[in-house]
Automatic annotation (TrEMBL):
Pfam families: SHMT. Residues 9-385 form the Serine hydroxymethyltransferase-like domain. InterPro entries: PyrdxlP-dep_Trfase, PyrdxlP-dep_Trfase_major, PyrdxlP-dep_Trfase_small, Ser_HO-MeTrfase, Ser_HO-MeTrfase-like, Ser_HO-MeTrfase_PLP_BS, SHMT-like_dom. Keywords: Amino-acid biosynthesis, Cytoplasm, One-carbon metabolism, Pyridoxal phosphate, Transferase. Its EC number is 2.1.2.1. The modification N6-(pyridoxal phosphate)lysine is found at residue 231. This is Serine hydroxymethyltransferase. Gene3D superfamilies: Aspartate Aminotransferase, domain 1 (3.90.1150.10), Type I PLP-dependent aspartate aminotransferase-like (Major domain) (3.40.640.10). It is an enzyme of class 2 (transferase). The lineage of its organism: Bacteria, Bacillati, Actinomycetota, Actinomycetes, Micromonosporales. Pathway: Amino-acid biosynthesis; glycine biosynthesis; glycine from L-serine: step 1/1; One-carbon metabolism; tetrahydrofolate interconversion. The keyword Cytoplasm applies. It comes from Dactylosporangium roseum. The record marks 230 as: Plays an important role in substrate specificity.
Length: 420
């Protein structure tokens, strides 16, 4: 059953309550391996489900356009103070509705439409909002894109520097959405300084690893840091922008009134709770366990003949290239889902297949680490993945059902926040 209990909701709207219960049960019974997902704590769930959702608060603490901010102001101030302390930054804005609007605010603060901006290409592991053509950031700016090396799947800093010197971008985005390796922020900063660009670190995926000391911090290297709050950081769906004092005003103005109206105060409270959790010693253990699990899983997958982009992982994420297994990423992800293992199909660098039917599957360990799984279970997880991919190739539905039952049995021993 969902916790907190859905008593009033069940009475008022049985249909919807049933759907939420179903999703909670699905999350409980599934090995959730989508690299950008997690389980928030019950405390975060409670904070986001409160009367704070009733309140309008356009503006910032102490400078609002609506009355009645006696409790909202200290809530937002708490979230800001905790963000500053956890990440060691001068300035934090906790109002962006999500990662994509946060990145749009970065552009609004630092560039004008038509300016040259630079980011990693989407099929190489970058995010849509780093200038990919179908995104507003690719349509409204002159986007130039860097890649990874074909041989080893790593960022080629000679190429990054060459493009930057030639194109003189105003902004350089570092970070991405399918990068299994440590981001070298000092190297990016060197290049940005050389061409007088502002370096932005989009740490959406790795924010929790940075907070927990399991990935180097971009602070002191990137002038602006953008992050979601709901991935490894294990907070509610939302985002934050952080910076030194130099960019603080422009970023705040871009978020409100530039792009948004009233902040989502219930989300702000959830972010404050999550940041409070991230400041605790247990979170350091959690962040390091995510990486240890990903490494152990990578080794176990390689032993089973899987081809990993870049040959392994340094963080929470593994990108499988399934070409040698004779199956596309999409049918593999679908079969894995039927086997109780939730992933997403993903392009791999230099993919020869189409984006809707690419060669890869992306895996992540943040959620299963929250459930309490350790390196000890990773060979078993790799074995299930391997059996499920083989079953998909052979169209063996009963084998997928058997794996799903085994997954359910294992997970029954690992509590899920939000479920009892
Ligand atoms: C690196 C990166 N930046 C930005 C975003 C956008 O976040 P949202 O989906 O909350 O808009 C994502 C989402 O996956 C991401 O991976």
């Amino acid at each position: 059953m969902h916790v907190p209990a859905l008593n009033a909701l069940t009475q008022a709207d049985q249909e919807l309550a049933g759907l939420i219960q179903g999703e909670a049960e699905r999350q409980h019974d599934t090995l959730r391996m989508i690299a950008s997902e997690n389980y928030v704590s019950q405390a975060v769930l409670e904070a986001t489900g409160t009367v704070l959702t009733n309140k309008y608060s356009e503006g910032y603490p102490g400078k609002r356009y609506y009355e009645g901010q006696k409790f909202i102001d200290p809530i937002e101030e708490l979230a800001i103070a905790r963000a500053k302390s956890v990440f060691g930054v001068d300035h934090a804005n906790v109002q962006p509705y999500s990662g994509s609007p946060a990145n749009l605010a970065v552009y609004m603060a630092l560039a004008k439409p038509g300016d040259t901006i630079m980011g990693m290409a989407l099929p190489m592991g970058g995010h849509l909002t780093h200038g990919w053509s179908v995104s507003a950031t690719g349509a409204w700016f002159r986007a130039v894109q860097y890649t990874v090396r074909r041989e080893d799947g790593r960022i080629d800093f000679d190429e990054v520097r060459d493009i930057a010197l030639r194109e003189r971008p105003k902004i350089i985005f570092s970070g991405g959405t399918a990068i299994p390796r440590t981001i070298d922020f000092p190297r990016f900063a060197e290049i940005a300084r050389e061409v007088d660009a502002v370096l932005v670190a989009d740490i959406a995926h790795i924010a929790g690893l940075i907070a927990g000391g399991a990935h180097p911090s971009p602070v002191g290297h990137a002038e602006v840091i953008s992050t979601t709050t709901h991935k490894t950081l294990r907070g509610p769906r939302g985002a934050m922008l952080m910076s030194d004092e130099k960019h603080a005003k422009a970023l705040d103005k871009a978020v409100f009134p530039g792009l948004q109206g009233g902040p989502h105060n219930h989300t702000t409270a959830g972010i404050a709770v999550a940041l409070g959790e991230a400041a605790k010693p247990e979170f350091r253990t959690y962040a390091h366990q995510i990486v240890a699990n990903a490494r152990a899983l990578a080794d176990a997958l390689i032993e089973r003949g899987f081809d990993l982009v870049s040959g392994g992982t340094d963080n929470h994420l593994i990108l499988l290239d399934l070409t040698n297994k004779g199956i596309g990423g999409k049918p593999a992800a679908r079969a894995l889902d039927r086997a109780g293992i939730e992933t997403n199909y993903n392009t791999v660098p230099y993919d020869t297949r189409k984006p809707f039917d690419p060669s890869g599957v992306r895996l992540g360990t943040p959620a299963l680490t929250t459930r309490g799984l350790t390196e000890a279970q990773m060979p078993q997880v790799a074995d299930w993945i391997s059996r499920a991919v083989d079953a998909a190739v052979k169209d063996d539905e009963p084998a997928l059902n058997t794996i799903a039952a085994e997954v359910r049995e294992l997970l029954a021993g690992y509590p899920m926040p939000g479920w009892h």
